[in-house]
Amino acid sequence: MINNTFQEVEAALILRIPFAQEPHADFLAWNGEPSGEYTVRSAYKLLQNLNPRAYTLQNIYKDFYRKLWRLDLPTKIKITIWKIT
What we know:
Elements: H1 2-5, H2 8-15, H3 40-50, H4 52-70, H5 75-84
Helix pairs in contact: 3-4
């Protein structure tokens, strides 16, 4: 089933995952935090690490957006400008 569902490289990685030695209940864990709990902050940090160029562009536009939100314009227009940039 794994070989039919995934590409060869991914299937090989999945099949290398060891089984638990002792039975235990399943649980969700997030690797972005030492506690294993998901937070928006940890996901944001992960995305920054995955695409540092996007984060750099965000810093470049920071002043532009700050000025945009301070303009005396209807919110609808500000949001439209924000979406097209």
